[in-house]
C-alpha cells in the first residue's frame, strides 16, 4: 500500500559528494518522519539521520557535520546530502518512512529497497 524508493547511490572517490533521494507514495494520510539508515557488509544496519514533518533533525555521530538531511513534505520526499565522503561510508543506504495510513495517529514504518554507496579511490 505504501512504497518507498531510494535513488542517487553510486561510486564516488574519497572526499567527494553524493546526494540521495527518497520518495514515499501510496495510501498515505500523513508522514511523521523520514530518515536514512545504512548497512555495510557483515555489519548491522545503523541509523544515519532522520527528520520529522516539523523539521526536527537527528544525526549519527559519524556524520560530524558532513551530511545534511532535508525534506519536502508536500512531495513526501527526503534527501541526504553527503559531503566529504570516506571509505567507511560505503554501505547500502535505506530510506525509512513513518507513515500514517489510517485513523490512528501513530505511524507505520516502511522501508525502501536500498541504494548502494561505494566510496573508493
Helix content: under 10%
Outline the low-pLDDT stretches. Answer: none
Shape: elongated
Q: Largest sheet, described in full? A: 7 strands, mixed
**Gap between N and C termini:** 41 Å
SSE order, one letter for each helix or strand: EEEEEEEEEEE
How many helix segments?
0
The count of DSSP E runs of length 2 or more, i.e. the number of strands, is 11
Structural class: mainly beta
Calculate Rg over CA atoms. 14 Å
- Beta-strand portion reads over 45%
Mean of pLDDT: 95
Topology, element by element:
Blueprint: E1 2-7, E2 10-12, E3 18-26, E4 30-39, E5 46-52, E6 57-59, E7 67-72, E8 77-82, E9 91-100, E10 108-111, E11 115-119
Parallel strand pairs: 2-11
Antiparallel strand pairs: 1-3, 3-8, 4-5, 4-9, 5-6, 7-8, 9-10, 9-11
What does this molecule look like?
A hairpin with a 4-residue loop joins strand 7 (67-72) and strand 8 (77-82). This protein is mainly beta and 121 residues long. The relative contact order is 0.33. It is elongated. The model has no long low-confidence stretch (mean pLDDT 95). 0% of the residues lie in helices and 57% in strands. The strands form two sheets. Strands 2, 4, 5, 6, 9, 10 and 11 form a seven-stranded mixed beta sheet that branches. A four-stranded antiparallel beta sheet has the order 1-3-8-7, with no helix packed on it. The termini are far apart. The protein has strands spanning 2-7, 10-12, 18-26, 30-39, 46-52, 57-59, 67-72, 77-82, 91-100, 108-111, 115-119.
What are its keywords?
121 residues; mainly beta; four-stranded antiparallel β-sheet; elongated; seven-stranded mixed β-sheet; single chain
